[in-house]
Write a structure and sequence with these properties.
The chain contains ten helices and seven strands. The protein is α/β, with parallel strands linked by helices.
């Protein structure tokens, strides 16, 4: 794996970034329901990472059609196994080891999936460029801040309480920001700094 770009769903953190630049990267990575969003019309994704909720969503063969031709990663091994059984698709893998290691570090909370994806990818590529992540400056409740079609959370309050953005920010400061292989796009870095200030990290 060489130059990789990870594209998140935050409109705020995508401001000023020309999505056509994704073509200059060897591998373009999206997350969760990106193929249901308007980003799929603008970016040719090679890889899609699915959290457990999205893995269940795509167990439906008709819905999975949008992922065909992509390399798919799931959060946990049992998600990958179920998706393979239900769809018959073979290019499905998981980041189970990374996820479980980080869950123990973040306990009793769980890391945001985007943090785990960055942690996983940075060890596999020569360069990881991150765009479209805002570190939930306004929380999940501000759905208007994200690309249309990406978020469909039924219980936003429950989703927010199982995480601790302060722990994710601390993880970034200790393991990601100073890694020479990881580049946070200008708007992403701005959101990172503002979020650290907001949460006192």
């Amino acid at each position: 794996m060489k130059k990789v770009i990870l594209v998140g769903p935050s409109l705020q953190a995508l401001q000023g970034f020309d999505l056509s630049e994704c073509k200059s990267y060897d591998i373009v990575v999206g997350t969760n329901k990106v193929m249901e969003s308007e980003l799929a019309e603008k970016v040719d994704f090679d890889v899609v990472f699915l959290n457990t909720t999205c893995a269940k969503y795509y167990c439906n063969k008709e819905k999975f059609i949008k992922l065909e031709g992509k390399t798919v990663f799931t959060q946990e091994r049992h998600d990958a196994n179920k998706l393979i059984r239900e769809t018959g698709y073979k290019k499905i893998y998981d980041i189970d080891k990374t996820w479980e290691k980080m869950r123990k570090q973040f306990s009793p909370h769980v890391p945001y999936y985007g943090t785990a994806i960055v942690s996983y990818l940075k060890d596999l590529c020569d360069e990881l460029f991150v765009v479209g992540f805002d570190f939930y400056l306004n929380g999940f409740s501000a759905k208007k801040n994200y690309v249309e079609g990406y978020y469909d959370l039924q219980d936003k309050q429950k989703e927010e309480t199982c995480h601790s953005i302060a722990k994710d920010l601390k993880y970034y400061s200790e393991h990601i920001v100073n890694d020479d292989k990881v580049i946070l796009e200008e708007s992403v870095m701005k959101c990172y700094i503002e979020s650290r200030s907001k949460h006192g990290v």
